[in-house]
Amino acid sequence: xxxxxxxKGPLVTVLFIxxxxxxxxxxxxxxxxxxxxVTTTKTDLFTVDGTGEATAVPDTARFSIGVTKTAxxxxxAQNQVNQIVNAVTQxxxxxxxxxxxxxxxxxxxxxxxxYSQGRQTARGYNVTQNIDIEVKPIEKANQAxxxxxxxxxxxxxxxxxxxxxxxxxxxxxxxxxQAIEKAKKKAQTISNLAGIRLGRIINVNESPSSYPIPLxxxxxxxxxxxxxxxxxxxxxxxENTIRVTVNISYETL
Length: 253
Fold this sequence. Notes:
The chain is an alpha+beta fold. Among the domains are: 1-32; 60-163 and 213-238, Protein of unknown function (DUF541), domain 2 (Alpha-Beta Plaits, 2-Layer Sandwich), CATH 3.30.70. It is 37% helix and 33% strand. The chain has five helices and eight strands. It has helices at 3-28, 74-95, 141-150, 165-194, 224-229; strands at 45-56, 60-71, 102-114, 121-135, 155-162, 198-206, 219-220, 240-252. The chain has a five-stranded antiparallel β-sheet. Strand 3 and strand 4 form a beta hairpin. The longest helix is centred in the C-terminal third of the chain and has 30 residues, at 165-194. The protein is elongated.
């Protein structure tokens, strides 16, 4: 049997079907077609939250000191300030404070005026230098403050106790893990009581971490006599607590 004979039958059938549809549409119009499409989206969610806490003793102290001197000339006032700042810096370095953690944040020179007898009269110049200091380990903070005030710093303020970045990150991870576990446990408890079947977790959101308000202490030390009369500094760093809150959303079955 020739190849043509084997395919002639199917070709004739296909040709007949096309001719039939052509004639039908010419006589009766196009064949109506209907397509039904239904799309469903499951939007029911079950959302719970959980808060975790992690606590640690601070390992870093930060504070600022200021030196203010007044003299009849700018140079005299600057020399007095520089002498005190240099002495403080050298002793802090000997204590173990790194140079990068001793930073000048302000240096100002202002004239001093006498307004007596109804007129303005220059009587000297005021020079101020402010320095931020970071001390680690925190046990050296008391010594660092005593060095600063003992060498002539007459302003101390902004004392805070914190964790370094690595320790803070570990504390956040611990609080985050605790928050997720609490949220999952809450979800299981509530769903069991309410008769809700939970599916997979489809979304997790974390609220910004909450940090404790830092301890602040400000002092103004006006004279050397006051400095010498004060007992050694005793700062209490306490503990720092980091809080993390997460929201977990489940599918419901």
